[in-house]
């Protein structure tokens, strides 16, 4: 059940009940592609840094270790020792990112595995079956994510096929949830809005999928090469046409600034690899811009990454020490940076929820954005 607790302009503060616990939104989902956050971060760490939802990747877990193995081991929650909600994406984005290894047809997509080159077929039914085996809390519908520069005719045909695939996903999930050996018979399904940068196609698609009464709705196919301004324009156009009584998820986004702008346009759910990827390269987020800890100016800096931050890195270690670890290629350096960045994102979402509750979101957003532009 999704319940809006407060609004401030278009910004929504809500709670979303699932079989694995209630999600407070707006929320940032921490990305653990292959059932682990890159950078040696354990699920016990995720509990400590305030993670609400973990996101894993259907395609990657199907390839390795195999979704049937995960099912035999009791599902993804048991496999990775995580008792809170998990969202699995559908494999649809790999249709986009593995452009050289795929062939798209009405029945689904033919891949070559990026691991060993073996042939894989994935359609709506297969994606639902894999996600049911993984037993995630929320499954994403199988879609095609057309390039932001694809021509209008291609995008329209692609979106029409995504709608047909969505209906097949819904039917198959209903069947899987009714089976006696299904680990999570309460698995939810989110549909995905596509349409590249064409507002009219996006709106029409939003209206079509809204009629299917799904558990939630995502805006996909953004943050794939178009400008931030284009992304905000599409959100302004399409979000009002998605059901307001269901959670809205902006897929693969983004920077802290992107998240602040997305919340302002009515988005509930976000995910992105930026905090972990940047952390592994020594780039850390603060309220005064991003720092590169490889810089020589931090060699003798005995202050934490950010004063007042309560993450495990800032509570115990200095910039100088973390810089030394990174330079020495010690894994701990990467790990501390990733923990800090994920804590920063999770804590920012807490602040966002509080600001909406107080009716002060506009002021909060303006102050936060001004700080990010300082860049020390």
**CATH architect. name of the largest domain:** Alpha-Beta Barrel
Number of strands: 16
CATH superfamily membership of the largest domain: Queuine tRNA-ribosyltransferase-like
Query: What's the multimeric state?
Result: single chain
- Euclidean distance between termini CA atoms: 43 Å
What shape does the CA trace take? globular
How would you sum up this structure, described in words?
It catalyses: 7-aminomethyl-7-carbaguanine + guanosine(34) in tRNA = 7-aminomethyl-7-carbaguanosine(34) in tRNA + guanine. Substrate binds at residues 89-93, 143, 194, 221. Keywords: Glycosyltransferase, Metal-binding, Queuosine biosynthesis, Transferase, tRNA processing, Zinc. Zn(2+) binds at residues 309, 311, 314, 340. Homodimer. Within each dimer, one monomer is responsible for RNA recognition and catalysis, while the other monomer binds to the replacement base PreQ1. This protein has 376 residues and is an alpha/beta fold. It has two domains: 2-272, Queuine tRNA-ribosyltransferase-like (TIM Barrel, Alpha-Beta Barrel), CATH 3.20.20.105; 279-372, no CATH class. 42% of the residues lie in helices and 19% in strands. The chain contains 15 helices and 16 strands. It has helices spanning 43-48, 58-63, 67-72, 76-80, 92-97, 124-134, 152-177, 199-210, 228-238, 256-264, 274-280, 312-316, 319-327, 331-358, 361-372, and strands at 2-8, 11-18, 21-25, 27-31, 54-57, 86-89, 102-105, 108-112, 119-122, 138-140, 188-193, 216-219, 248-250, 269-271, 283-286, 289-292. The strands form four sheets. An eight-stranded parallel barrel has the order 4-5-6-10-11-12-13-14, surrounded by four helices. The longest helix has 28 residues, at 331-358. The radius of gyration is 20 Å and the shape is globular. It starts with a strand and ends with a helix. The relative contact order is 0.13. The mean pLDDT is 95.
């Amino acid at each position: 059940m999704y319940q809006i607790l407060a609004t401030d302009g278009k910004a929504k503060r809500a709670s979303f009940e699932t079989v694995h616990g209630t999600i407070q939104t707006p929320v940032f989902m921490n990305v653990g592609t292959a059932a682990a956050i890159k950078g040696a971060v354990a699920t016990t760490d995720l509990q400590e840094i305030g993670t609400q939802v973990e996101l894993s990747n259907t395609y990657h877990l199907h390839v390795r270790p195999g979704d049937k193995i995960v099912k035999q081991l009791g599902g993804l929650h048991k496999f990775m020792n995580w008792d809170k909600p998990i969202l699995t994406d559908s494999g649809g984005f790999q249709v986009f990112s593995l452009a050289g290894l795929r062939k798209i047809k009405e029945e689904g997509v033919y891949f070559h595995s990026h691991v060993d080159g073996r042939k894989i077929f994935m359609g709506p039914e297969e994606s639902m079956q894999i996600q049911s085996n993984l037993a995630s809390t929320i499954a994403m519908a199988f879609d095609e994510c057309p390039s932001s520069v694809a021509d209008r005719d291609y995008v329209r045909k692609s979106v029409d096929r995504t709608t047909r695939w969505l209906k097949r996903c819904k039917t198959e999930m209903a069947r899987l949830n009714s089976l006696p050996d299904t680990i999570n018979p309460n698995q939810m399904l989110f549909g995905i809005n596509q349409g590249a940068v064409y507002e009219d196609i996006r709106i029409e698609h939003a209206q079509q999928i809204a009629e299917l009464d799904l558990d939630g709705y995502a805006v996909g196919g953004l943050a794939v090469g178009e400008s931030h301004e284009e992304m905000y324009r599409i959100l302004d156009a399409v979000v009002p046409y998605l059901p307001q009584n269901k959670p809205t998820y902006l897929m693969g986004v983004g920077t802290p600034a992107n998240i602040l702008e997305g919340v302002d346009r009515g988005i509930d759910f976000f995910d992105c690899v930026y905090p972990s990827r940047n952390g592994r390269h020594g780039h850390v987020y603060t309220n005064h811009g991003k720092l590169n800890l490889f810089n020589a100016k931090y060699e003798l800096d005995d202050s934490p990454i950010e004063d007042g931050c309560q993450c495990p890195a800032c509570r115990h270690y200095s910039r100088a020490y973390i810089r030394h670890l990174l330079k020495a290629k010690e894994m701990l350096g990467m790990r501390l940076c990733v923990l800090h960045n994920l804590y920063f994102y999770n804590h920012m979402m807490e602040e966002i929820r509080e600001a909406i509750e107080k009716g002060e979101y506009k002021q909060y957003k303006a102050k936060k954005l001004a700080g990010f532009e300082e860049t020390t």
